[in-house]
Amino acid sequence: MKFYIFRHAETYFSKFDIHYGESVESAEIIPEGIPVTERLAKYLAGEDIDAYYTSPFKRCTQTAEIIEKITKMKFIKDARIGEEMINYGKETFNGVIDRVKDFLDQIKTKNFQRIAICSHGWPIAALVALITKGKAARNDFDDFPACGILIEIENGIVSKKDFN
């Protein structure tokens, strides 16, 4: 199975490295993130992807809408790849890992060859660690992509493409 994993388009918060606070679920993408997402979408359109998944948080669904227009593929919303809620006292690191692992385990039961996933920093870091190492830990959470970076994983090999 080949994975195409990317973070939502740029937001005011991600651009200036500001904590989302009360806007964690409602933060919107900013205009400069749109062309980057369109370039990513054009690339994905040529990859014959079987399924597209996204976090239900607004910045991810807005990113998904841009990609859907170009790829003509619909995203499936899945809360298990939603933003971490550790900083809000609603979740633990192990909780993030467990729900991301549950998502990944279910995806692996499908007959997919290629899958695209739009998510957030820490869930992406957990996904990459789980796919490449079979496990994830707190120290893996520090390694997540900036907006506009596509992570491709196939046969345990990770490559990155920058659409910024």
UniProtKB/TrEMBL annotation:
Q: Which GO terms describe its cellular component?
A: cytoplasm
- State the SMART domains in the record: PGAM
Name of a matching Pfam family: His_Phos_1
List the InterPro entries.
His_Pase_superF_clade-1, His_PPase_superfam, PGM_Phosphatase
Q: Which GO terms describe its molecular function?
A: phosphatase activity
Q: Which Gene3D superfamilies match?
A: Phosphoglycerate mutase-like
What protein is this chain from?
Phosphoglycerate mutase
Q: Supply the source organism for this entry.
A: Candidatus Woesebacteria bacterium GW2011_GWB1_39_10b
